[in-house]
Design a protein that fits this description.
The protein has 116 residues and is mainly alpha-helical. The protein is 53% helix and 10% strand. The chain is built from three helices and two strands. A two-stranded antiparallel ribbon has the order 1-2. The protein is elongated, with a radius of gyration of 24 Å.
């Protein structure tokens, strides 16, 4: 028989006067991390946890998620910029396609993908 421990946390992230109840399935947290911090970082984590009504661990997990989401977004933006720059027409020349041609090509691709 196995038991699943759930931890309920109240978060004030929803707004200054709103509280959001979050359930964390502790069985999904399967890795332990030992982290050494200086006093300043620890104090900032504790202050954020108290301000938002979360545990210090929840604040750390959220910071990790936010960091890697931002990194992924930066990689996507850089790739899009490179693609845009590579496909830019030479100065003074006409674009490869008009807006209407791009819409028509997109519609044709969609129709092709819907065919059995």
């Amino acid at each position: 028989m196995s038991w699943v421990l759930e931890k309920w946390e109240v978060s004030r992230d929803a707004g200054p006067d709103m509280h959001m109840l979050m359930c964390i399935d502790m069985s999904a947290l399967e890795r332990r991390l030992h982290l050494l911090l200086d006093q300043d970082r620890h104090d900032r984590l504790v202050a954020e946890a108290e301000r938002t009504g979360r545990s210090v661990n929840a604040v750390i997990r959220a910071a990790i998620d936010e960091h890697f989401d931002e990194q992924r977004d930066q990689v996507r933006r850089a790739a899009a910029a490179r693609l845009l720059l590579a496909s830019a027409a030479a100065p003074g020349s006409e674009p490869a396609e008009t807006w209407e041609q791009m819409l028509a090509a997109q519609d044709a691709d969609l129709q092709d993908s819907l065919r059995p």
